Automatic annotation (TrEMBL):
Its EC number is 5.4.99.-. InterPro entries: PsdUridine_s_RsuA/RluB/E/F_cat (IPR042092), PsdUridine_synth_cat_dom_sf (IPR020103), PsdUridine_synth_RsuA/RluA (IPR006145), PsdUridine_synth_RsuA/RluB/E/F (IPR000748), PsdUridine_synth_RsuA/RluB_CS (IPR018496), RsuA_PseudoU_synthase (IPR050343), S4_RNA-bd (IPR002942), S4_RNA-bd_sf (IPR036986). This is Pseudouridine synthase. Belongs to the pseudouridine synthase RsuA family.
Amino acid sequence: MRLQVFLSHAGICSRRKALEPILAGRVTVNGKQITEPSFDVRPSSDKVCFDSRPVHLPQKIYLLLHKPQATISTVSDPHASKTVLELIPQHLRSGLHPVGRLDKDTTGLLLLTNDGELTHKMSHPSYEVEKVYRVVLNKEAGDGDIRRISQGILLEGQKTLPCRIVKRGPMELEMAIHEGRKRQIRKVFALFHYHVERLKRIRQGGLELGSLKEGEWRFLTPQEVARIMQEIRKTPKGKKKK
């Protein structure tokens, strides 16, 4: 792990702001002053100090929340009536943030963690982490419209990636996508003159919402953590394995 990233994950400062103290010689690794931000740190064995004080990575936490309607997927928002973090006990909130976002009216699976690397990889489209939604429309979806949407359409000047859509009823669909543009599903169906009445995320990267009720949360099991770690170890699209 790069020294610059290590300081950011340890909560000392942001990744960008970590450059200044490193270049100023305020950081040591195993007693040696390091002024190279890209210096490789092994968190399990190296002793990192900032202004002579030991620095440790926090214990990583992974929570699965069933986000209810009328809550905002952010850490804090002075204009929001309620954020997702307010649904989590106070003693667990430090450093916790949502992995990606669900808009105010969308419900379902939302992963919360203090693991910055996992957040980046699960949110970045190059890793193509699959997200599955249950979509309820205001009228029956035509087969031709479903076919066109699944092949990818032009949305705000950029073509959407191909997706998988399965009909679960006349007005109910299951839609799997690998990107997360703002209000993408709602906007795509609006182009075909549908209104999304209800939208719920039921799966993400091998995680299942299951029977968790709105507003409830739970810790991920060790098996679930292992599954998502395996998911983000995949080579990003467009990059070759060395």
